[in-house]
Design brief:
This protein is mainly α and about 70 residues long. The protein is built from two helices and no strands. It has a domain of about 45 residues. The longest helix is centred in the N-terminal third of the chain and has 36 residues.
């Protein structure tokens, strides 16, 4: 029936979207790490501000290394 065909197509599309998600998340995480290594905060509290003398920020570290 039409409903089963539509359901099948939706499941197929969902599988494609779910397959792409980890790759995008990895790319975003790498970009954020690069920004941090360039000397900028990536945490919510100080986002975009330069880290003085490249000092570590516990808020940024928590964001970067959470699982």
């Amino acid at each position: 029936t039409a409903l089963r065909l539509e359901n099948s197509k939706l499941r197929e599309r969902l599988g494609e979207v779910e397959a792409d998600t980890p790759v995008k998340a990895k790319h975003v995480r790498e970009s954020v790490r690069r920004i941090y290594k360039d000397g900028f905060h990536v945490c919510n509290d100080f986002y975009g501000q330069r880290r003085e003398q490249d000092e570590e920020c516990m808020f940024c570290d928590e964001l970067l290394y959470r699982e």
